[in-house]
What does this fold into?
Amino acid sequence: MLQGAPWHTLCVFVAMTSGIASVNCFATPRISTAPPRRLAAVGTGADEAVEGMDLPRGERPWWQAKRRWLVGAIAVLVGMVAILVAANLEPAIPSLPKESVWLGQVEQAEFVRDVRGPGTLAPMQLRWISAESPGRVQEILALPGIEVAPDTPLLRLDNPELEIQLLDARQQLSDAAASLVRLRFEAESDRLAQVALIASVRTQYLEAKHRDEINRELRVQAPGLVADFDLARGEQLVQELANRMRIEARRLGVLGDSTDRQIAALEEQLERLRAISRFHEQRIASLNVTAGVAGVLAELPLQAGQSVQAGDILGRVVEPRRLKAEIRIPQGQAEGVAPGQQAIVDTRGHRIEGTVSRVDPTVRSGTVTIDIALPESLPAAARPDMSVDGTVIIDHIDSAMTIARPPHAKPHTTVGIYRLQGDVAERVPVRLGLVSATRAEVLEGLEPGDTVVLSDMTSLKDHDRVRIDGT
It folds into this structure.
């Protein structure tokens, strides 16, 4: 009657809830079918009356026959009640000591949206000194840190090849100058010879013309005195000499033009050779390196005997009193930064007010470089390449509900923040507005005067409530 799966299930549950380990729940329950036992005689009188009497099975109490079923049902009921109670119990609240958390209050006050970043001081005027000619460092004449003028010598280089090239250029210049002198002399001599030839031909022309005119007059006055042949020959000679005189005059013009062109070409070549000679002279002069501008010699990374090539950096001269701040702002916070905004530069000893003068249009290594113009009067400790912290003021709100900036806070997002009530902090959704370097604007979720936990609570993200011990 009690065999089967229900008995085994009930037995196992009762054994687990009652803590009885010796129960054999897989044994088959049995009801004895042996003849009823007789009661032993214990006394006399009435006790003797029952001697030899049998107790029939059908006359046992009902609860005794159903006892095992009742025990099982009660155990099941108790187990169900225990399960329901355990399900309704809240998990244990984790606790943190007050010293390990950062608490802050919600304030209704002025809100300044700003961004911060590290940077360095840089000179407004900077001159890199580069090598104009290759050479070898012969002598170092100055050391970094000294004040220099434009003509202050810094070092001296040596290059014998440049001196040879200068001598060669000067020789070519001298040869070209001599050729120009010779050409001018020859041109003038040729011109004079041509002028003399034209004068001679003109004289012959005038004589032939005068003779021809006389012959014509004699023939008119005394016919037959001058033969026709002599008259025709005189006329022909006058024409030939006139024609030759025109040719020689044209030749003189051509000779002059040709000579002028030759002289102009040679003068142009001479000017080129002069420029080449000056170039080599400048290269020789550039071996004596000077500062070029007034300021402070900031760098001269060379040693005597070191070879340099044209274009190599030899040193750096800066103007130490005209400085600017170059601040690196994370690219995610650089939105809204524009020239003209107010800024503060902290040198870790002085706070200097300035103005944003330039915003780099490119992103380098995840940051945007911002130039901050500084006043001319700076603290004496200000130096180029000095590490500073810069703050740029982007926006200003006269009255806003704010809290100290929580970790990983971003503008216009909703975050979970633990609000402290008594000694228990409960996480509530908070909608943020603008976010600055140190404060965050609260739009919804908190009220002025609320105390909140501002520490990084990522490790307790699975718990909506946290107990703060010591509050």
Observations:
- The chain has five domains: 1-31+67-89, 92-106+405-471, 116-125+319-395, 129-154+288-317, 160-284.
- Helices lie at 5-18, 46-49, 62-65, 67-88, 160-221, 228-286.
